[in-house]
Structures are given as C-alpha cells and as structure tokens.
Design brief:
Helices cover 28% and strands 24% of the residues. By secondary structure, it is an alpha+beta fold.
Length: 135
C-alpha cells in the first residue's frame, strides 16, 4: 500500500527519482537547497521507498509552478502521477487568488495528465509556447 505525504523526499531520493526517468543528477547540496526552497511537497512511498514525488515552486503569492512531478518507471500507469498532481492542487488551492498563475513544463507525452487537471496546452490562440533556457 502506497502512502501519500507532504514530507519532501531526501536529496538522494530526489536524485534517484530524477535519474530513473533520464534527468541529470543534481549535486546533493543543491538538491537539498532546491527542496528546502519549495513551497509544497507531495511524496508517495511504498515499502519504505519513494516511488513518486512532486513539488510547487514560485513566489508564493502570484506565480506557482508544478515542478519535478516524477513517478518511478516501474510504478507508472497506476494513477500515481494524477494522485500527486491532485494533492498538489488541493494543497495549493488556499494560496490562490484572482490574478495568480499556476504553470508547469510538461514532459513530452504526459500533457493529457495535466489537461485532465485543468491546465491549458501551449501554444494556443492567446498564449505562445513555453520557453526554456538550459545554461
């Protein structure tokens, strides 16, 4: 049975999940700092192992971003990503006011997960494409 919590992953759990989906490992001290600077966390653990995570980053007032929504490859297809997103949005709701923006950068192929949660794909008739810089 998987357990959902608002306890952040450790830096090593964070890196392990990132690496499991092909993302680069982050220096452990920087990973810990990134986790500490997050506004919200959701972690799904099973048998003592972190199998999924997600967090919210931003200024805490107007701009919020879902970040690092990751499900371990051997646990995909079971609705865990949706569970993480739903919990983050529930936890985020008390902070949202008119004029706020909640954004994300979806990995290719998982856009339907976010569309089901109410997010709008970009580009569209009014919004341009999201952009990324990898320094």
């Amino acid at each position: 049975m998987a357990t959902l919590s608002n306890t952040p992953p450790t830096a090593s759990e964070f890196n392990a999940l990132r690496c499991s989906c092909g993302w680069p490992q982050i220096d452990p001290s920087r990973a810990a700092q990134a986790l500490d600077n997050s506004l919200l966390h959701v972690t799904l653990r099973e048998g003592g192992k972190t199998i999924a995570m997600g967090r919210v980053v931003g200024d805490g007032v107007m701009y919020f971003y879902l970040q690092d929504i990751v499900v371990a490859p051997d646990h995909r297809g079971k609705g865990h990503g949706r569970t993480i997103v739903d919990r983050l949005m529930t936890d985020l709701a008390p902070l949202l006011r008119p004029g706020c923006t909640v954004g994300l950068m979806a990995a290719h192929g998982v856009e339907p997960l976010y569309e089901a949660a109410g997010f709008t794909a970009r580009p569209n008739d009014t919004l341009g494409a999201g952009m990324t810089l990898f320094p």
